[in-house]
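Batch manifest, entry 17 of 40.
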Amino acid sequence: MRIAVCDDDLREREQVIGALRAWDPSAQAECFSNGASLLDAAGQDPPFDIVFLDIYMPDENGLKTAGTLREISPRTGLVFVTNSEEHALDAFSLYALHYLLKPVTAQGVAEAFRRLRNLRPELKKTIRLTVGRSTQTVALDHICCLASSNHAVEITLTDGQQIRIWTPLGELEQMLDRSFLKINRGIIVNMDFIEEMRAKSCVMQNGQELFLAVRERGAISAAYQDYLLESLSRKKRGGTV
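Output type: C-alpha cells
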C-alpha cells in the first residue's frame, strides 16, 4: 500500500507517522513538506492509496492541492489533517475519507483505513500463510481465532475452515491488527467475532468457548470493553466526514 503524509511542519509529519506506526508497526509512508512535491509524486505509478494532507500550509491551500490530487488520482483516499473544523464541509465536497483534528491518533488513523477498505475491498489487510509447501493469503477479517496446538497453530476462519501451520504464534501476532486480543498464552481471538465475554471465558460467534488467562482476566475484559466502546464510537461517526 502506498501512503503519503503532507505537512509543512516536520514535527507534525512525525506525529502522523507515529500514529500510523501505533496503528500498524509495519506501515511505511512517503513524507512531503509541500503540495507541489506531493503532486509530483502522485503522478507516479502506482498511485497513492491514501494521503494524509494538512489543510493549512504557508502560501498553499491544502484544499486546492487536494482538488488537483483528485484529478490526478481519483481513487486515492483523502484524509485532511487540521487544527480546525472550519473546512469540514469543503472536505466533504472533495469526497474526503476522513477529517482528523490534530494531534492525530492511532484510533483516527484506524478509522481512515477502515473507510478506505470499505470503499476498496481489495486493500483489506491480509497475511500470507505458509501451508505445507504452498502459501495462502487470508484477510484478517476472515480470521476468527488462532490457537497453539502441538507446536503448530490452528487458525479458524469465519466460514468454519481451519488452517494448520507451523509459524510460531508470537510471529503471527506481529502480523495482526488492533481487532485481535491475546486471551491466554496460546490463544488469540478476533474481538469482532466474540459473542459474549464472561468472567472466565469468552464465547465466539461459532459457539466455541475459550478460557481466559487466570491472572489477566481483568485486563483482558477491560481491553475488550475498550474495543467495544471504540467500535461504537466509529459507528456513530460513520455518517460524518
